[in-house]
Amino acid sequence: MFEYLVIVASVTIFGIQHSGISALRVKHWIIDRWGNEDYSRIFNVTSFLALIPASFSLNYWDWLYFLQSPELVNPFLFLSGAILLALGVVVAILASRSISVSTVADMRTDRKPTLVTGGFYARTRHPLYLATILFLLSLVAFYPFSNILVFSLSFVGYVVIGAYLEERKLVIQYGEQYLAYRRTAGFLLPRLSSRKD
Description:
Blueprint: H1 2-22, H2 24-34, H3 36-56, H4 65-68, H5 75-98, H6 101-104, H7 127-142, H8 146-174, H9 176-182
């Protein structure tokens, strides 16, 4: 039980760190004080440190169990994991056609970034979060261990909360332009219709 609490606490700390440092006020304060490169370093180092406790409890040495003990493999779960992983990769590729990593990580404060609403973003507002969720669910299917389940579900919870916090930031940045876009594209799941109500 303690192991699971460590995982949940670690993901929670990561969520606070990730959302806290990327909050507009904090982000701009760090950039104004130390510059873009130091902001990037601070963000990356603290993200890495925040996930260390959870990472140690994931038992990476058991991750090749399907080669060492193939009788433990559940074919349905393994196939489901492959499908979820493939979907996550496809969503990430479709999203990356409309927005680059440099755009996502843009740390400049001297200009207002452009709101991306084309390509896959025309259907869902947070395709990279969706890809992350699909990847996390594939982990659970590939590795049906309790610690992986706790880690993945905790992280899915944070991803949903993180997407909600990102929404609030985007409304502040883009105002009515984002509110109009929000009516045409799904939050995480792609909206199949193109209604604009």
